[in-house]
Structure formats: structure tokens, C-alpha cells
Amino acid sequence: MDRRDVDQPDVDQPDVDQRTGAGGTTSGAAVGRGAFVFSAADEERRRGVRRMKTTATGLLTLVALVYVLAKWAQHTGAGGWAGYVAAAAEAGMVGALADWFAVTALFRRPLGLPIPHTAIIPTKKDQLGVSLGEFVGENFLSPEVVRARLHALGIGGRLGSWLADPAHAERVTAELAAALRGALTVLRDSDVQAVVGEAITRRAESAEIAPGIGKTLEKVVADGGHHRAVDLICVKAHDWLVTHGDSVMDAVQGGAPGWTPRFVDRKVGERVYKELLRFVTEMRDMPEHPARGAVDRFLTDFAADLQSDTRTRVRVERLKSEILARGEVQDVIASAWAAIRSMILAAAEDEQSELRRRVRSSLMSLGARLATDGRLQAKLEGWIEGALVYVVTTYRTEITSLITDTVAAWDAEHTSRKIEAHIGRDLQFIRINGTVVGALAGLLIYTVSRALGA
Fold this sequence. Notes:
membrane; transmembrane helix; DUF445; 2 domains; 0% strand
């Protein structure tokens, strides 16, 4: 008979260290498995269970001794009281043994006998896991329970009050900054640059830009916004002509026929330069100069062509593709990520950066609105409830299977021991109560029987 099958004090059993296997014969497959490692708290619970077993077994022994002495006293003519004591002790033994059997049958076979419906936890472990999973799924993961629980929590108002606190908003901002830095650190620049470059290029190639440019140019001309650009060009042209007058005259003289006298070429060059300088000066100083009107008409016509003329639009698109295909442009597009990344990292690390200040301010503003705006609270809670209900309804089987699969993977013997370590002490109180209640019930029955003359 296995000593463990008798609920006697375990004083003669060595404590088995489930982590090392020292002092016992625990199989190597079970040793070291995280689910069955007995912690210091578990060992303390097991010692408490053994102490309660000793107490319950001692009480059973005491009742048995009282029964023997009462029967002996009854046979020796000690008086009627012996019968009452014997009846109470006898019923107490019955109650103690019945509860001992019930408690023991939960974890092992009493006395090692193959009695049906015993060793319930080791033999029914998998069924218990399935039942536990079904219980959790039906009572904790149903849409109605999830919605009711979330509604009772009042997440919107609580979250709003929490975020409205500057310290909490700063904490969330710091966590977001840390997460952002981590994400940017994990991402490889080459991969991101390739994605960004491809996205920008593909977007630019797929979108026709001529109509948009035409509409913008049309609005600029209508508002007179191009006048400043024309003024700037005229000023720069005048200044250049003043500074490079000799170059202009040399260019005119160099283009003259070889048979003309040199002084004639010089006079022609001076005349051309002066007329050109006069023209630019007048255009610069006269807002109503005819050349300015010609520029306005040209830009207006060009804006219309960009929007409606097929040939112009095709030429603009061809020019756009040629520009995008140039290596220099692709390098600029690819390098945009490096500049953006550096800017974001610097802003995330600086507690006083504009980015972090705006995030903090936005979080506090959102928190203040959430704390007072019932409609916003209802909308947020509706989103959260909808998301969680979707998760529990879609993945409830996977969630509950985590319970059933985990329980199924446990070793039956060690599972039984671990559960017994947690609830065994309370179960031993059942044995003690059974002894006391049985004795009182036996005494009552014997008393009633005597009173009725049985």
C-alpha cells in the first residue's frame, strides 16, 4: 500500500524538491517543467496541509479511543452515560472516515484500491480542463458579459480624468516617444528609403500634374501674384546689364559680319546695349508696360493650355518623367527619409520640443473633453466594446483552447499535488467538521431513540 494513499501525517516522507529532483523519484520529464515547479510558498502550503492532516487524523484517533473506552465502560456497567458517549464517538468515526474517503478520492485512490470514481483530479484532469475552458468562454467571454462589464467600468470618463492630469499626460508622451524611438531604431534606413522613394515616385508618376499646375497658375495670374516675380526678374536683369555692359557689347560685336568696319560694330553694340537697358529699365519702373501685359497674356494662355491642350499636357508629363528618372532626383527622394528620421528622433528625445509639447497639450485637451463630454465618452466606449466583442467572438475558441491545452499538457500526479497544496488545508477542515458533526448527529439520534424507547 502506498503511504501517500493514507491520509496520515507525512512526517516520514522526504520533501521532494521539484526543481532538482533531490530526495524523491520524480520522473525527469516532470522535473524542471515550469508549471510544476514547487515554489517556497507551495512548500509552505504543503507543510500546512500536513499539519492539518495530522490534526484531522489525531481527532479521528481520539474519537476511536473514546469509542473503545465508552464501550468498555458500558460493558462494565458504568451507567447510561456510556451509551451516549459511545453513540457520539461511533457517529464521529463514521463521519470522519466518510469525509476522509471523500477528500482523499479527489487526489488519489483511497488505500490504493481501484474504487470507481476516485482519484478524480488525476483521472479527470483533461475533462476538467475542457469544462473550465467552456465555463470561461460562456461566462466571461460572451458578448453580453464583455459589454456589461466594460459599460460598468466607465472607461471613457476614467481615461479622460487620468489623461487630464499633466503628470499622466507627460508619462504617456514619454512612453510614446520611447516607442517611436524604438520603432525608428528597429527599422533599417535602406528598407524605409526604398519604400519611401518608390511610394513618392509611383505617386508622382500616376498623378497627372499639368491640370493642377494650370489651375494654380491661373489663380496666381488672376490674383496678380506673379507681379512680384516679374519685378524681381526685371530688377535682377537691370542690375546684370549694368554690371556686364561690356560683355553684352562684345557679344553683339562678335556676331557682326566680318566685312563691317570695327567702329560700326562698336556703335551698333553700344546702341543695342542702350536700347536693351532702356527696355529693361522701363519694364522695371512702369507697371503698365506693354511687355508686362504680354507676360500676363502668355501666362494666362499657358495656364489654359496646361488644363485643356493635349499636346501641352503630354509634354509636361514627359518632362516630369524625365526629371523623376534622373539619379539626382532619386537620391534627393531617398535621402528625405534620413532627414525626416533625424528630425523625428531629435524631437522625440527633447522633452521641450514642439512635437512633445503639442502631444502633451493634445492629450490633456482630449482628457478634459473625455472627462466632461458624455457623447465623446459613449463613442470611445462603443469603439472599445466593439473591438473587444469582435476579439472574444472571433477568437473565443483559441482563447479557451489555451486553458484546455495547458491543462492537458500538465502531468496528472504533479497537478494533483499542486492543487492539493493550495486547497488541501481547507479540505482537512472538512474532515474535522465531519467528525464533530457526525458525533453530534449520532448523539442526537441516540438520544431521540432512547426517548422514544427504541
